[in-house]
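Assemble and predict.
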Amino acid sequence: MRKPVRITLFITVSLVLILAIIYSILKMIAFQKAISNIENYITQELSKRKRTVEWVNNPDSTIKALLVNKAYYQALLTASKSDSIILAISIPDSSVSLLIKGVVVHKAKAEHVKLSPLFSAINTPILIHGLSMPFTIAKQTSTIPKVPLMVKIAPRDTSEYTPDIVPDTTDHAPVNFILELKPNILLYFYESNPSQSSDGFNQFKFDLRERTWTVAQDIKRMVKLRAPVYKPYIRFRLSNKDAKAIYRAIPEHGQVVLRLE
Amino acid sequence: MNNTTNSTDFNSEINPKLKRVGYWLLLINIMLTGFILLFIYLTYLSQPLSEAIVPNRKLTFTADSNSTQEVSIKKLKKEVSALKQQYQNLTPSHSYIVVNTTYNRFKLYKNRKQIREGFCSTGSYTLLKSHDKRQWIFHTPKGMYRVLGKVTKPVWRRPDWSFVEEGLPIPSVNDPSRWEAGVLGDYALSIGDGYLIHGTIYKRFLGMPVTHGCIRMNDDDLEAVYKTLEIGSKVYIY
């Protein structure tokens, strides 16, 4: 091998390794930092809402289950005070439901659920109490439009008038969407068993775009000598129909109730 | 002999250039491969690695000790059952209807049990723009509504957009051309802001988003809904 090739190979490998190691170390730090960030957010929210914190030392499974149930119902009742449609997620039974004023209007079963390990690292009492309040959606990203708006210009007179075209209900668009909750919790809803190979490719493209965006944001922060951000996530696989109905129904800054255990 | 000399000359003239290009391509290739591997690592592998070390911090309560209080199982059970009851009470015990505007379906409930389901038509999400800069969006509003009124043999009072949409001049408010009988079916239930649950003459469009915001149903379903829902019954639209 000639010398310049060896030098290029050496520089490239070193650069790649150094960048990968630095990024990994900072991402590990970000993971640890995210735990305390979420705990602080929950504590602040609790004090803002003047909620008393109840806990027993070394609770057995019965007490823990009761505390989890209590938190879940408290969150549902708080969220149902608002007029908007809310999303209730229950991890134990893998269900994703839409509620209006406390009434379940749509219930979907997730075929696959994956939770970020960060949730198991958060101080349990704080997490349970954190889940007694609904979360607010900060941002939504999707492969389909929120509102399928069609613009129609009115005819000038009856000669220009044409009756409405019947909508194409066979139209099949792949549905994948991401909800970002305050404080930096990501909910990924991906279509399960994409019916066409192009849907699978669309899902891959959507996922890759999201991951690339996250890495780009992290690198931007690193350039400014700030640590990257770790966002805890929950990944769901839903049927196309459920995903579409849920995404179209959730308001832009709607509320989400989570039950993790 | 001549041929051999020519080809040797050609090689000695072209080869260094080709070699240089090949050389540069090799260097670029090495760098590109490196960065592609780095990209794959950053996008797909770095996250699971960062999650590898999960601190075991469970059950170490760090909240303000003043706000901490011991709770008994009995007290907790009582509280949970009260909250559950309060939550369950949010579902109406009498009749209500749920309308899915994405798939244009409805479900009718009575005594907390589903008694009927079927197709309906909801708003088309068309934005109609008139030439005098007025515009209307034909969507069915989402949320909780109540049945505010019930009528039989409803007569439709055509709003301005129905004339604009057909390129007709807008008549005066009380013009007889605004009144049309028979197009809304046998029954209509008002849910406020001019939105109705009514019948249709365009039954082939049921299950499709084609309306101007109202909820259209076929005759049998409409009759069942009319007879089941009372004034004040809740209408959940999502």
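Residues 3-150+172-259 of chain A form a domain with the L,D-transpeptidase catalytic domain-like fold (CATH 2.40.440.10).
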